[in-house]
Amino acid sequence: MDGEGFPSGRPALIEAEDLWLTVPARPSGVNPTGNPGGLDILSGVSLRVGEGEAVGIVGPSGSGKTSLLMLLAGLERPTRGRVRIAGTVLGDLDENALARFRRRTTGIVFQSFQLIPTMTALENVLVPLELAGRADGVATATAALAAVGLDGRLGHLPTELSGGEQQRVALARAFVTQPRLLLADEPTGNLDTRTGESVMALMFSLQQQYGTTLVLITHDPALAARCDRRLHVRDGRVTADHPLRRDDP
Ligand SMILES: Nc1ncnc2c1ncn2[C@@H]1O[C@H](COP(=O)(O)OP(=O)(O)OP(=O)(O)O)[C@@H](O)[C@H]1O
User: Fold this and answer.
1) Could you identify which of 36, 160, 207, 214 might form a hypothetical disulfide with 156, taking C-beta atoms 3.0 to 4.6 angstroms apart as the criterion?
2) What are the sequence ranges of the domains in the chain?
3) Ligand 1 centroid – CA 74 distance (Å)
4) 0.90 surpassed by complex ipTM
5) Ligand 1: which residue has its CA nearest to atom 12?
């Protein structure tokens, strides 16, 4: 199927149409996708995600999940096709406008936390607030860290925090500007099972509290099952789209 999916009954926050991502063919000339002009990482992916919806993206390693997320984040541009987030077509924006739009609209959480190593927990969470020109930065960042249970770790550097604590700082940083969209790429991939579960409980709780739209890449079926919908990606295509939790009939 083409990934248009089930109507969620909510206004769309993400509308992606016929996304292709093609990279130059490998020097060996061997190209499993059969495109002589290059290697198709994504092949005509279309999807709509409703405001406030949580979508789990599952699929084999190398199927294109992270690449799709990068296009939705505007961190990569598609070779063909269009991404519209909250009514804005990302391809219409130059790099500066795109960065501003992303700061206003999108939070991102990665498997490897991606905290700035020379900054304390508080300073890491302050970064998006300062970029947004917020005068209330310290109080807001402190409250965000308290909300993830880290009010006792404000002055700690990432190396002085456990993996679960680092990911909670990353969640605080992602949510502190209350973005409409949160993109998460295997956020529990580097955590043990129990820590991963508590980080995920926190992420879903913040997502529901703020009504954030969530796109979550995961290899964990239990995590995908906590989403409203589950998209299967295989060989650069969306091959199935299942409604789950709240949209179940
Ligand atoms: N810039 C690039 N140049 C060439 N190939 C790339 C590039 N980026 C990604 N790929 C290839 O595209 C395919 C999809 O990669 P992607 O990281 O999106 O997969 P994934 O589904 O997220 O995998 P995983 O579950 O292992 O993280 C892979 O085969 C990868 O090697």
Assistant:
1) 160
2) 12-243
3) 16
4) yes
5) 41
